[in-house]
Write a structure and sequence with these properties.
heterodimer, A: mainly alpha, two-stranded antiparallel sheet, about 65% helix, about 0% strand, B: about 300 residues, mainly alpha, 6 strands
Chain lengths: ~350, ~300
Amino acid sequence: MRRVPRVPELVGPAALVLASALLGLAVSVSTQTYFIDTLVKVSIVVALYLFIGNSGVLSFGHISFVAFGAWTAGVLSVPVSQKPAIMPNLAHFLRATTVGNVPSLLLAAAAGLVFAALVGLPLMRLSGLAAGIATFGVLEITSNLLRYYEKIGPGLNAFSSVPETTGIWQAAIGALICVAVAFAYQRSRFGRMLRATREDPAASAAAGISIYRQRLAAFALSGGLAGFAGGLYIHLLPLNINSFYLDLTFITLAMLVVGGTGSLLGAVVGALAVSGLDSFLAAAENGVSILGLNLDLPAGTRLIVVGALMAVVLILRPGGLTGGREFFLPRLRRRARPDAPPSTGAA
Amino acid sequence: MTLAVLNISYQTLADALALGGIYALMAVGIGLVFGVLRLVNFAYGQLVMAGAFALALASEWNWPVWAGILLCFAVVLALSVLMDRLVFRPLRTQSPAVMLVATFAVAFLLQSIALLWFGSLGKIAASLAPLNRPWQISGVDIRKISIVAVLVAAACLVLLQLLLERTSVGLQMRAASMDFRTARMLGVRANRVIGGAVLLSGLLAAVVAVMLTVQNPLVTPDFALRDTIVVLAGVVLGGLNRPVAATLGGFAIGFASGLLGGALPTAQSQYLPTFLFAAVILVLLVRPNGLFTRDRGSVERV
């Protein structure tokens, strides 16, 4: 079995998130958007990690929880006066209410959690490919319904008039919350039980662990984080339903796999690395100059480079960049022995 | 003229049969590779897309029809062999999840290349357009392509069945998809079997490319993407472990979506994916190993 994560291991992911936030503060406003977007992606990937990393079951459905969270936060935070213009077919009870920034995020998290729990109730009985296709089906259905059912949102139109409250700080704090929740979960007894089922389903079932219940709990919790991340996302940009479909599913899964599905650090590193490269190339398509060199790539290069890079990383390092390892401080690691008390304090 | 009870026209029925046939071919293509590699090839649709672009280019260059089809086959086969060598082979021993995400990456890559090369508006593949005209059979108009597609799909499936049942490479492929390690111990050459499966699945992708471009001559970078998703669902629905089950699953989902798409009024047909995938999820919950497999699946014991 894998090593049980220790508290200092939270330092690495958290420090990476903070460092990118600080870096984001130092750059121009137009570049800062890339950093905010990256931090929101970190939240989504950490949400994915909480379920996929700990359970070892692939899910293609998490973007539907992100979308549902985004819809919840979006519908509830558009000012009442603007609602008829953007969403003429909105149901009555949604038309009359508007909530603030933080409540809308909390409600988005709750919506994601409830939705994931309901979906997971039947689906967590499946595993392997059947689970993959079934979760994919959830994505298809959610995307299809949100696209055409205009009583609960703007349908195909973009969510304009949502207050753009996700600045660099809100994105960073949001990402930190996700990292902290994922870390607390994987250290809890539930997280450990789920990891045991990932390593050996038969043995863990024999030890009295209900695989179904542990997976369901993780699925719901990670759905909550995904909904929360969706709330953050909709407060950043006026997105429409196409932003929450195959492309986002693909890029977030790729981030997780490139970083390494086995560790929280992998999720954060993967999100930062892929997102950073993606943003850099997006900027390069508009022309940037680095060290006096003018770089101007043709439009579309970005997608090719990112796709190729992902294939290469998978071929050369199938375990991802981190190889499933958590962050550790070298000195502490040498000292730690099985019989020694868990060493903490250095943080 | 309609089948009055269900409000389904013969054209809808023929289209549904044709779509079922095409999806059955895609299902076999995906199922064959899965059998030997345990790999769900998400990039299969992009192979079809590449073949469709080859056809579109050929018709732009005013090539004769046979040359266009030849180019389509050449491009698709070359691409599938390349995919096998560069991506599948190095990842052969990895977990299914890693391989699946790798095919995701390949799909994404091919689609972006197409986007950069041809633009998002796409090209028209017009050389086979005459097949889209209707034939009159005893007073009923049916588009030629629907009949051609059904016939071609049936012929391909029969040939494939013969190959799998009557030749030694077919036997080896079936053995390898039952138990790859044991098959290798008994002298089955891994590269030969995998290469054979990849080539066959590439051939089927090329056939599918030809037939899909007749039905939908506008070739865009996301050509066949939706079809692949639906077929993947169908394949898992039918049961991935046996080629016949996978084929039936592909046919069933193609037939169902063709029928529903034709029969439902517009107000409801926009929710077609919801109906389709809700049905898929329901079936998977009842029979996780597939509709057309015999065993109900065994739990691994220590």
